Amino acid sequence: MNSPQKTVAFTVPPLIRKNTALIALSQSFTGAGMQLAYGLGPLMVYQLTGSAGLSGLSVALIGLSRFAVSYPIGKITDAYGRLPGIFFGLALALVGALTVGYSLIGGSIAIFVGGMLIFGMGMNASQQMRVAATDMYPPQMRARALGYVATGSLVGLCLMPVMMVLSDRYAAQVGMDPLAMPWFMVPALIIGGMVIVRSIRPDPKHIGMNLGHYYPGYEAPARKGGGEAAKFSAWTLLKKPRILIAVVCNCAGQGNMSIVMVLTSLVLSHHGYSLSEISYSHAFHSAGMFAFTIPLGKMADRYGRGSIMYPGVGISVIGAGLVAFVPTYAMVTLGTFLVGVGWAGANVASTALLADETSTAERGRAIGMNDSFGGSMTVLTAVITGPLIEFSGLPSTGLAAIILACIPFFLLAAFMLRNGGRMP
After folding, report:
1. Which of 29, 105, 220, 374 lies 20 to 30 Å from 353, alpha-carbon distance?
2. If one looks up domain 14-210+233-418 in CATH, what number appears?
């Protein structure tokens, strides 16, 4: 897993450069909505229920939606192409955003739950954009391709604070709750993303099935059952130690981040910081998630997936400790930033590894499986975060995040002991 990827000089065709830029631009339009879900969700739940013990509900709903939709949407995109699945996801997200905004106007936690589930399913379905990116590049360029797409989310980071500042200043003037107003801005961004996606041609899956046409000299690795009707088995994939550890790394990074996202909003709100200040802190977290994905991807392509995946999980451990144990604005913001960087390394490297190990005809399901496991971890951690905060305080919650992020290292050590010290 740590061996560097074979270097072959391929020139990226203009068509693929254009498609990659369009996917990244669409991400920049739609990414702000997901940041709202993580940044404002815990505060919305607290306002609707008055219970800190339920503060993790919004993040749990995002995780549940990821668990529910990621594999089925992967199956759809494997069968019919990436673009139909992405469009379906964006349409769901649009409906969900309006529903979430209305839940505060109506004061209904039930409407909030339904809206957040719909929104989360839509946004997570649209994450097939990452699969589309890996389709269009040969193995030795896939991690950096994921980096290009993720970097597009940086523009969305600039939009979230703007929406929050507008809400702080003008929500009262229009008779709207400042937590609800941003959700009515999100549909305009989603529609912009849909318009951009319509310009992508041909479907990235078609490119992936014919890489040799776009990269002269490329030879696809021989794989049993790798054609259009490829049979997919998640359990067969997970029997491979390198894939199992990659999935566990992704789950650990996702679970750690879910705990920290809940902690960040509640810690800063508890210490009297405004919505705008909280949104800036979350923007730093999101910057950590996306600002370094291109260099991280290039290093994963050059030095191997494990060279980025394991340090990424390690960095997230440090970040979780800062958020939980050093609750000043500067240290919380630094901690949440480091958690974002760590998640980026684990996510980019594990996704690229799964793309390497699967054919185009099954890649949507494989990466969807990885996302589903990550979603289940988000649900688990989000559900336990609120009660941990309420009954044991912030330190115990931070400790839980740290222990969770250490699990991949225990698993790696067990494999290495069994194999005479060799990396899987």
Report:
1. 29
2. 1.20.1250.20
